[in-house]
Amino acid sequence: MYLITGVAGFIGFHLARRLLNDNKKVIGIDNLNSYYSVKFKKERLKLLKKNKNFKFFKIDLSKKIHFKKLKKYYLNIDVIIHLAGQAGVRYSIKNPTTYILNNPYAYLNLLECFKKSEKLKLVLYASSSSVFGDILKKKNKNKPISVYAASKLSMEQISYVYSNMYKMKLVGMRFFTVYGPWGRPDMSLYKFTKKIMSNKKIDVFNFGDHYRSFTHVDDIVNNLIKLINKIKNHKSGLSRVVSIGNPKTVKLLKLIHYIEKYVGKKAKKNFLPLQKGDVRGTKAFIKKEIKDFNFKFNIEIEDGVRKFVKWFVDNKKQNEK
Ligand SMILES: NC(=O)c1ccc[n+]([C@@H]2O[C@H](COP(=O)([O-])OP(=O)(O)OC[C@H]3O[C@@H](n4cnc5c(N)ncnc54)[C@H](O)[C@@H]3O)[C@@H](O)[C@H]2O)c1
User: Fold this and answer.
1) Which end of the chain has the smaller Cβ count within 10 Å, N or C?
2) 204 in any annotated domain
3) What is the pLDDT of residue 281?
4) Residue partners of 64: CB distance under 8 A and separation at least 6
């Protein structure tokens, strides 16, 4: 049985949907926080709840007492995919505390709860490409430049300790910018699409000179399943991090160009300097992951944006709120 934390979130929702379609049993938990629209999260949950193999519990991982709700299923859970957490680099500048509470602290609670489970084979947890720091600046390479990145890096360090001490199998997934239908409203693709459609100005940071390894959520899910299947029966006591991101990078202005193309309107751009904490570029180097897990990234950015805009328009009523 799979336990997905952060199941009402963007990636958790897509992974749960895929596992349920494959006839697996999924327990999902989420605290439904209000970082972005709770209604949007509940819409995702509504779709998942249609499947009888899905059970949802409202649990806040930063509150140990809430774990009691899992008691009945504890002995059946053999794989955990931990996607709950506080995402977003820019929000971490003004709200650093919530990143420590919901990233390393909540993760530690989860590990404490499951460290003695004999059934549990594997925990995959969400880290981030931001742990690489500003890859264009030698001084900042591999050093976190935001509390968000630091909070993810500390989860990786904690994993090293728990895999040694309790022989747990803990694999960190360094996601690069993930996008797709039901994507997060605080991320660029969603924000830009919404504003371009309603003729509002978009803020383009670093004067548009950003580039990212934009990765479609379907590619994330496919590779995640490969990772689970390959590593599930691997010997215990393993701590490893893997990069899951499309090795092809895309410039921000190119992304905007594709949105304009499929929305059918020109963007009004408000060019701004680089924001504190933001890295100028991310690039997924995944030679080892391709060799070990046969990772593949099939969705080209133009097609991914086309599909996103179609979903946005098809769900216009909900997305225009
Ligand atoms: N989406 C990306 O591009 C991206 C990139 C790198 C890393 N990540 C990481 O991957 C994970 C999933 O990202 P996402 O885009 O799906 O984010 P998301 O915000 O959509 O999903 C996270 C979910 O976790 C829940 N949550 C937060 N704190 C919790 C707690 N204490 N207890 C229970 N639930 C809690 C939230 O309510 C939310 O539904 C996050 O940890 C994020 O930092 C995402």
Assistant:
1) C
2) no
3) 87
4) 109, 112, 113
**How far is Cα 303 from Cα 36, in angstroms, rounded to an integer?**
26
Range of the domain at 31: 2-180+214-245+283-298
**Residue bearing tokens 């030698």:** 138
Is the minimum distance from the CB of 126 to ligand 1 under 6 angstroms? Answer: yes
Q: Which of 83, 107, 184 to mutate to test the pocket of ligand 1 (most atoms within 8 A of CB)?
A: 83
Per cent of the chain over pLDDT 70 is 98
Higher per-residue pLDDT: 127 or 232: 127
Distance, CA 265 to ligand 1 centroid (Å)? 31
Cβ 163 under 6 angstroms from ligand 1: no
Pairing of strands 250-251, 211-212: antiparallel
- Average per-residue pLDDT for the chain: 94
Considering the chain, what percentage of its residues have pLDDT values greater than 90?
A: 86
| 169 Cβ closer than 6 Å to some ligand 1 atom | no
pLDDT at residue 319 in the model: 81
Q: Please give the distance, rounded to the nearest whole angstrom, from the Cα atom of residue 86 to the centre of ligand 1.
A: 6
Distance 275 CA to ligand 1 centre (A): 22
Domain count within the chain: 1
The alpha carbon of 71 and the centre of ligand 1 are apart by a number of angstroms equal to 24
Per-residue confidence (pLDDT) for residue 140, from 0 to 100:
66
Asked whether residue 31 is domain-assigned, the answer is: yes
pLDDT (0 to 100) of residue 145: 87
In a domain, 145, yes or no: yes
* Ligand 1 atom nearest to CA at 177: 3
Q: Tell me the CATH number at 131.
A: 3.40.50.720
Active site residue 148: yes
Residue 185 lies in a domain: no
Question: Any bridge partners for residue 254, and if so which?
Answer: none
Phi-psi region of 250 (alpha: psi -120 to 50; beta: other; left: phi over 0): beta
